[in-house]
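Problem 12. The chain below contains 110 residues. Write out its predicted structure in token notation.
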Amino acid sequence: QKVGRAPKNVLSSCNHADILSCAVTNPTNYLKFNCLDATADIPPGPYDKIIAAAAASKDIPQSWRNQLKIGGCIVAPVGGSIRRFTKRAENDWMDEEFPGFAFVPLIGDR
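Solution.
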């Protein structure tokens, strides 16, 4: 059973081709998989949602914020917390923090 509406444009990036190859079966048209270092830049959006599985040391990359639609959210580990950033307006963000986690670092933060 689906809960809520499905996002229309979601980005998943990975810098390991072997891991990314596990995601080649894409039953929907709204997921985009890329093999890249997402700390530098991401493919043009705009995106409804962005989720990261590697931790930023201080903050998420600005390019992620730039490519997110108003009303969209980014869920990402930052430091020792999982953070949810919701874009309420072009320069208005809600930032929620959920502490107590550990992740591998983003490539650009090594």
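Discussion. Strands lie at 10-14, 31-35, 47-51, 68-78, 81-89, 92-99. Students who got a different answer should revisit the alignment rule from Section 12.3.
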